[in-house]
Amino acid sequence: MSKVTVFDHPLITHKLTIMRQKDTGSKDFRELLSEISMLMAYEITRELPLEDVDIETPICWTTEKMVSGKKIAIVPILRAGLGMVEGFLTICPVAKVGHVGVYRDPQTKKPVQYYFKMPQDIAERKVVILDPMLATGGSSNAAVDELKKLGCRDICLMNLVAAPEGIKAVQEVHPDIDIYVAAIDKCLNEHAYIVPGLGDAGDRIFGTK
């Protein structure tokens, strides 16, 4: 079974609390999301392998450590996942970026894919799927399904807020996918929104209703 990691760093928790407040405007919401994404990316990349390299400092030659060529790709789920891209790239600017467009049918609550474009070498990379909300798990499962069809084997999810139902749904379909979140909330309501949540992340990022 996959692991679920909750990042309970005080700065992440503090910033998330501000994002949850209904009177937090789009500008502050976007900035906070980017900041939290940067902090989470820092933790997600903690286990990247290192290798010895010989370098010359202004003083002498020395053997030091550098990341050993591990390739990373981030895949935001449109729209809301776009708000996490800048923060992640601040930590890992060489990461390539794919995009998957999925929306939830308001009647069936099922994911509908409308866009999918990935780097050509996506199967060779560690793939981090970005989406602020892990609610029903439908969009995440759909994204993972498509990535696995391309041969991706090292995939994880990075979400701001998750519902227990969404985590369970992903683990049942993809038990090999690790999940990284800033918070696990109480439940989903009758409209499949996370409670207490923070509302519709896409609308709050882009100022739409």
Keywords:
single chain; 209 residues; alpha/beta; eight-stranded mixed beta sheet; two-stranded antiparallel sheet; 6 helices; 32% strand
Describe the model.
It is a single chain. By secondary structure, the protein is an alpha/beta fold. Helix content is 31%, strand content 32%. It contains 6 helices and 12 strands. It has helices at 10-20, 26-44, 85-91, 138-149, 164-173, 201-206, and strands spanning 4-6, 50-56, 61-67, 72-78, 96-97, 99-104, 111-117, 126-134, 155-162, 178-184, 187-188, 194-195. Strands 1, 4, 5, 6, 7, 8, 9 and 10 form an 8-stranded mixed β-sheet that branches. A two-stranded antiparallel ribbon has the order 2-3. Helix 1 (10-20) packs antiparallel against helix 2 (26-44) and helix 2 (26-44) packs parallel to helix 3 (85-91). It is globular, with a radius of gyration of 18 Å. The model has no long low-confidence stretch (mean pLDDT 93).
In short:
The chain has helices at 10-20, 26-44, 85-91, 138-149, 164-173, 201-206, and strands at 4-6, 50-56, 61-67, 72-78, 96-97, 99-104, 111-117, 126-134, 155-162, 178-184, 187-188, 194-195. It is of the alpha/beta class. β2 (50-56) and β3 (61-67) form a beta hairpin.
